Amino acid sequence: QVQLVESGGGLVQAGGSLRLSCAASGSIYVVNAMGWYRQAPGKQRELVASITSVGRTNYADSVKGRFTISAGNAKNTVYLQMNSLNPEDTAVYYCNINSHYEGTYWGQGTQVTVSS
Question: Cα separation of 11 and 87, whole Å?
Fold first, then answer.
């Protein structure tokens, strides 16, 4: 049973930075893409950033220039570097890995809170 384990969330002041990490506990044989989503209270879950198996990245307009997604050297790990955080970035952040054969895996979520 594959599980995604996230870490790195927390409380930060506006203008600060956080780095989120996600690692799969088991083997995922063929990964199409990895990504980060977020869900703020009362809002739908939205894509923040994604990276494909060939390194192509995609970002939500609201985070372009501030957030950077990267794949780790270890297999099936992904990071999200978040800079210049603002209160609108406050949400639960979820790691996502889309597998070619096994479907989509989700992490349990990590809280990011940005104070003004």
Answer: 11
